[in-house]
Amino acid sequence: MGHEENKNKAATDQEEEAWNQRKQALIEELSDKLINGDLETKIEAARDIRKVVKKSSLKTRSEFAAAGVVQPLVLMLVSPNLDAIESSLLALLNLAVRNERNKVKIATAGAIPPLVELLKFQNGTLRELAAAAILTLSAAAPNKPAIAASGAAPLLVQILHSGSVQGRVDAVTALHYLSTCKENSSPILDATAVPPLINLLKDCKKYSKFAEKATALLEILSSSEEGRIAITNSDGGILTLVETVEDGSLVSTQHAVGALLSLCQSCRDKYRQLILKEGAIPGLLRLTVEGTFEAQERARTLLDLLRDTPQEKRLSSSVLEKIVYDIAARVDGADKAAETAKRLLQDMVQRSMELSMTRIQQRAASSAPSKIPSA
């Protein structure tokens, strides 16, 4: 390393050290205002913390938490002053983003009960900020049991009915996180969540991450009779699941076919015609070839249930695949049989889908553009 390079490195190190000293002084100043100041000073400090943290690294978030800002911010959540609530919410949100330790620290400091109370507010801005905070905190596994037990879920479902687009997206994501909590002793959702979930799934891109979360929740709801009735009674409920089987990602197709299978397994006589009427067969056939292993198994089972022949005479999907494989082995030999069989099955799917193309084109022509973010 030459003299000039050494000189440049020393200058860079000095600049970094000076910045760290200024940053530490700022952290101490803002934490002191937040802990010891009057209400207006606390509000100003919370806003400044949000601004600093929003542009800073994970390390800076941790340094603010270590300086003791979390507890006074949580206490501001119960203030009668709406500006104090909003400024503390925004500061806490920014402290928690991409920082697992801060998420846990905020929950441990007692943030969950006041956040749940804020979900009851008529003030839409504060209510949806609280939903965003619940979402952020529920991303940390240690927080899920406490949030799931807090009564947040029914309030998040209310946001699904009446919130803004972003509020509804946050509510779905939070509910999805909470649904994966293994400590849940009882379901966090009831059938009232079905209609807004179906409407949101209608409006979003079926291959989006959002659709994956919405279909996961619908699959959970399809395990109860109330949930199945709600799916059937929702305008376009079964059709929306069928469309997701056709157009969804690997994850959303697996959940969608799981929900349809729950319906048909619960009462074949009741649900078989309803599913067939929406043109489910082409998408299910394609799923037996292109889906995840679990989705393929579910699609085969559902196809067997949808067939009109008696149980003892029914040609199962697995038998059909074996017949195609045997034909392929005779034509191209055992070493190429799997590839040939897959191609033959794909051709069968394609022909079946062509028979339903008019219906699909009509549906596509009448559909509205998506308003739901694809993330």
UniProtKB/TrEMBL annotation:
Q: Which Pfam families match?
A: Arm, ARM_PUB
- Domain annotation U-box: ranges: 171-311
Keyword entries, A-Z: Repeat, Ubl conjugation pathway
One GO cellular component term of this record is: nucleus
Q: Which PROSITE patterns match?
A: ARM_REPEAT (PS50176)
ARM repeat feature ranges: 68-110, 110-152, 192-236
Lineage: superkingdom = Eukaryota
Q: PANTHER family annotated for this entry? A: ARM REPEAT SUPERFAMILY PROTEIN, U BOX DOMAIN-CONTAINING
Protein name as it appears in the record: U-box domain-containing protein
The species this protein was found in:
Citrus sinensis (Sweet orange)
